[in-house]
Amino acid sequence: MQKLTVSTIALLPSISAFAYHDSDRTISNIYLFITIASIVVSIIIFKRWWNMTKDIKDIKKHLTHSSTDNPRLTFLIAIGEKEEAQKVAVSMLVDILMKIYYDRMTVNKAATMNTAINDLLPKMTKLGLSLPDHVTSGEKFIEYINNITGNSVKYVQPINPGPTIDNK
Question: 127: helix, coil or strand?
Fold first, then answer.
């Protein structure tokens, strides 16, 4: 009902363009142009609005089943979808670890990853989920991703002091 109301309101400019035509019942070119332009703009706005409402529904669904306390995992376990919960847990943890892996500002990547893993691992273990070996420590994850990608990311990145000035 709301979408119908908004689409009707969006079409009001084009409907009102017909009210301003000449008295001899012929529509001048400018009014015809305004009518067509307002219909096109209204359709574009309506389509974007329609897509935004779909996005909002997806976002709401995602937010109601995920946060730092892992209610989505709990929800999946509660309905008997342990395999799906396992995939979500690994996906969630890998997402966090990949951000750290590619973050250039994180100096001690392994320690930062270990902190993130240690925050989430007890909750996942309590739910009865088991994780692959490569996501149980920062060092193992870095080695695993380095082997897959061919990168050579170090556990602790050296600090680049920048250029030095030679005073002679």
Answer: coil
